[in-house]
Protein: Transcriptional regulator
Amino acid sequence: MPASKRDQLLATAEQLFYEEGFHATGIDRIVAAAGVVRMTLYNHFASKEALVAAVLATRHERFMASLDTATASAVPGQVTRALVDAHGRWLEDHSPHGCIMVKAMGEFAEHSTEIHALAVAAKADLLARLEASLARDGLDHQDGLARQLFMVLEGSNTAVALQGTQTALADTQALTDTLLSVAQGKTE
Amino acid sequence: MPASKRDQLLATAEQLFYEEGFHATGIDRIVAAAGVVRMTLYNHFASKEALVAAVLATRHERFMASLDTATASAVPGQVTRALVDAHGRWLEDHSPHGCIMVKAMGEFAEHSTEIHALAVAAKADLLARLEASLARDGLDHQDGLARQLFMVLEGSNTAVALQGTQTALADTQALTDTLLSVAQGKTE
DNA sequence: CTTTATATAGACCGATCCATCTATATACGG
DNA sequence: CCGTATATAGATGGATCGGTCTATATAAAG
Structure:
């Protein structure tokens, strides 16, 4: 079946919001690009803010699903590496110009508590996945290791945007390996 | 002497842009908050885009000066640590909600090549400072170490915004120490 | 055939956007 | 004292903003 108008709007809005910014993208631009009429948007979403929230929520779902798929089949000792690799593939495929949640936090911190909270929750989800992965790798004893790896992934977002996937993802992997090796050493 | 109108405008615009976003902050808001009339702004800046560029440029100057001051007096072997600490103090004092350059890249990538280039250049300056610091510490042999530390600092920006300075800066320091210790070990 | 849901076309609203204009006022330096 | 620079006050411009409205059209489900 063809994508519903609602899905067309979500996909179009996601692309425009990500590439051109939230406030800089008007409703008219979105409906025109989606090949849909103005009222159709307001039939599916109560407001622009609701549309933004829906875009972020659905994108985050896909992001989490891709991480979970990648780690599900990983063997113990390689779960965290699999997670970091999956994160890198996401950047490569869907997020080469910075993280949409970070952008949303920057644009809506003072304008929408709902959207800001949604972005913060998304980051908390990522940190939780790191903690779970470390646990499966037997590395959950080190206080702060999950947060340190989280910091690396956040930096990787910006590094990819500035230096390209080739360099940035190689650096991310090397950095992660160093951290995990040190952590492994402290265990034995 | 009291701050010039131009400086008042720069300071006010910097605060509003940083806290509320660039596109979300209108000219009227800025002039009202600065206690200045509309034409005064256009007497000093050709356009809103020029104002944004001036804000980013002056802020970046201050940022670089604070880094250089901190590293100038550092003893060899502690220069990079001093740089990372100075970066942390900057986040604490002036940038607790994310990096303004990252925000600018997100909002202007598709709208102003001048502003985008300015932000990219600012990030290149930071990376260059890391390379110079590592050289003074005798750690410039390790390929990619500067970029890895850069990645950590970029992640630190977001981590501070999400977890607060207390936790995030402690994690940043621990992470940096690990990386520098490993690099030091590889030298001997 | 008729009901219900969804989409279209397009006018309309007040608000705000960035930018420009003229005319007046203030203040400092030669 | 006079000229230049800077600031003020306030109107004005066209464009776009997010959001609402009505009337019409389509199509599937009863």
